[in-house]
Each structure stands twice: as C-alpha cells, then as structure tokens.
Automatic annotation (TrEMBL), chains A, B:
UniProt cross-references to PROSITE patterns, sorted A to Z: HTH_TETR_2
Any coiled-coil regions, as ranges: none
Record key words, sorted: DNA-binding, Transcription, Transcription regulation
Xref: SUPFAM superfamilies: Homeodomain-like, Tetracyclin repressor-like, C-terminal domain
Residue ranges for the DNA-binding region feature of this UniProt entry: 36-55
Positions of the HTH tetR-type domain: 13-73
MF (Gene Ontology): DNA-binding transcription factor activity; transcription cis-regulatory region binding
The protein, known as: TetR family transcriptional regulator
A GO biological process held by the record: negative regulation of DNA-templated transcription
Statement: the UniProt record of this protein carries the keyword Transcription regulation: yes
Domain of life: Bacteria
Amino acid sequence: MSQTRGRGRRADALSKDVVVRAAVDLLDEHGERGFTFKLLTERLQTGAGAVYWHVANKDELVLLATDKVIGDALAALRPEPGADAETRLRTLLLTMYDALDQHFWAAPHVVAGSAMPNAMLLLERVGSLIAETALPARRHFAAATALFLYLVGVTAQDSAHAKTVEPGVSRDELLGQEAARWAALDPATFPFVTRVAAELGDHSDRDQFITGVDLFLDGLRAHG
Amino acid sequence: MSQTRGRGRRADALSKDVVVRAAVDLLDEHGERGFTFKLLTERLQTGAGAVYWHVANKDELVLLATDKVIGDALAALRPEPGADAETRLRTLLLTMYDALDQHFWAAPHVVAGSAMPNAMLLLERVGSLIAETALPARRHFAAATALFLYLVGVTAQDSAHAKTVEPGVSRDELLGQEAARWAALDPATFPFVTRVAAELGDHSDRDQFITGVDLFLDGLRAHG
DNA sequence: ACCTGAACACCGTTCAAGT
DNA sequence: ACCTGAACACCGTTCAAGT
C-alpha cells in the first residue's frame, strides 16, 4: 500500500487519502471538538506543515472526511435484485442512517453540492429511486431533496444528542432521565409532551427515522 | 430597564438576559466562528469574568441564544381563529423556518430537550396540532418528532449553505453556479442530477420546505 | 515535490483581587 | 453578589529551511 517514491520522503508516504483516513479515525475517537492538529500530526508522525501540504485547512479536512464516510457507506451497499424502488430506497436511507450514526460528527457537514462528490452520488441514488416511483416527474426534485434533507437532518439531530452523552452514562439511561423530565412537566402547558413522555423512554431513533420515511413515502403514493 | 442595585455595580447592570441578547446579535453579525468572547466583552464593556458569572461557558451561551431565538419566534406568532389544525401547523412551521433562516447559526443547536425550554414548547405546539388531526393517537409521537426533526434538519442544512456564501457573492449567483456544475456532470453516472439541475437554479429553499411538509401531511392523511 | 518544526496570533477559561 | 483584567493553556496556520 505505502509506496516509497523520492529519496528524502518518509517510507510510508503521506497522501491526501492517508491524511483523510486518519482524520476519520480521530474524529470517531474524539469528536469534532477533540479533533486537533496536534493529535493528527502525532498519529501521522509528522509536522503540521506536512498536513497543510495535502489539505488547505481543517475545514476542508473535515469536509473530506465527511465525504469519505458517505463514499464508504455507498460502496458497502449490496444490490437487491428484484426489490422494488421503495424497498431499495428504504435500504439506501437506512444504510446511510447507520453510517452517519456511527460517525456521529459527520451529519452536520453533509451538503449535496459539487464540493462533496459522494454526497452528490447519494442524492443521485435517492433521485433515481424516486424517479422509478409512480410520482409525477415535476415532483421528483422536491421529493428527492426533501428525503435527502430529512436523512441528513435527522442524523444531525441524533448526533447532537450523542454529543451530550457523558462517558459513563449510557444512552438508554439518558433517554430515561429525559423521559422522566418530560413526564414531570406541567400537564396544563405541556399536554402533548407529558402524554407521549413514556414513548420517548422506550423509543429507538432508528425506528423513528423509518417511520418518518414511511410517512413521507405514503405522501408520495397519495399523490399518484 | 437597567436597575442599579448595590454600590460597586455598573449602572447598566449585566444579567443573563443582557448577555444572551448580546450573544444573539453578535452571532447574527459574525456567525458562530466569528463569535468570540473578545467581541462579546467589548460590546458589553466588561471583562471575561463578568460573562462567566452569568453563564457557565460558551457552549451554554450559544444554547441559551438558540433557545431565545425560538422563544422570540413563538412569542411573535399570531393566532389564526377559525383555521384548521393543518393550516396552523403550516403557519407554525413556516414561522420557525423564517426565524431559523434569519438566525442562520441557530438550527444545528436546536434539540427538543428539557435544556431548551422554548424548543420544548415548540415540540409541544407541533404535537398538539398533530393531535387535532385525524391521525390515530399511537402515531402522534412519531409524526410530531418527525416533523420537528424535518424542520430543524432542513434549516440546519440551509444554514450550512449560508455559511459557504462569501461576502460579495449573492445567494442567487451561488445557486446558479452550483446548478451549472450539476448540469455539467456526466449524464451517464448522474442521470437524475443532470436532469433536475435547472430546477435547482430557480428553486426557493422556503418553497421546497413547504413542499416537504405537504408531502408529509399527505402521508398523515393517507393513514386516516 | 514533499516534509520538518519552530513561531505567531488568537481564543476559551480561570482566578486572585476588588467593591 | 457581582465585576475586573491579567495570566494560562491550547489551537489553527504560516513559513523559512531542509531533502
């Protein structure tokens, strides 16, 4: 994998890809806040200047790392022969949900723009599958971007939650505490929230995400 | 408004609310990146320690500022006598969309948790309106949170776009450039994106948001 | 072309001291 | 209780110098 081209170069030559891969790992380990150039140069056994030779700055590096996460998830997707468009759309969205859930720092940076080729490819897939639907063509753009935004928005929200979790406290514990706080609110001003507080306790973000997608797909079908 | 209690105190006494208000203004002016304690203490004519007396740290301050934005938008809402639940739901969501669009730094920080009382109140309103719908009660929780997440997610995405805009370049210009880049992609690998590129050029984020909401509401009705 | 590492400017936070 | 402002630790970025 590591090629030694040139003489004064290090044996395991640095490259944009090596830098980005290290960034993804460190972001996974320390989050966006804890991800520093100090950590990065230590892991890569190099100086700050070396990193800046391969990427413009930290912002670009995080962007590249985000796009890589999406690219890897897309590459891992297995085809589903015989499945209809809606089924494949659900699989695609769930796969991306899991990837963005795992790399919890990434979602807020996902933008469907030419600066992120893999995010672009993701929008393309969503759009193609929407186009296979019975939905009239003039609604394809709005439907595809809405679903794309829903995916990214929900995962970004979930990751905001994940950031709050202190080490030592489990996610379920925290949800339980929050549910208790909801239940303890004044039912006069919070009739709805107090009523559904219990559902928050034993709810799964992932299931909730699918439910939202299904409601959306129902809406599309109703437009048939 | 400004009370002089105590002797050694400044005439225009600091308070949590004054600090948060100044934070909102500075965040509007400089974005989250440009918002520093140096700027804040200059505007408030005080030292860093004074701010830390009223808020725990910068994170809490941004959170308080975010919740204030939501609170102000909720307070500005006018009742719509005679309108049905769906209409009022759309009004509510659009009002919040506009508020989060104006304060472009806020959306990524919105979380429906007890730490953000006004965000909590927003979820309550969404949920109450959903509950007025014909939707069966067991779906209320999922539907309300999905809509809430869609609102926050979309506005967070839009704000990510807004951050990219360099001063001097208008938003329409930038959209046009991006649309051109979409159109220039290889139609073989990007059949969908190249096809809808033109729609990106003359699309409105706000209209697209409503379209998404409507598709969602259609889904709810289909479940009747 | 690619890498090193010291130097710079800046930023969030703390804290001893004041009223 | 509330405020001041200097001091500290840290961080992203630059750059002259090396191969």
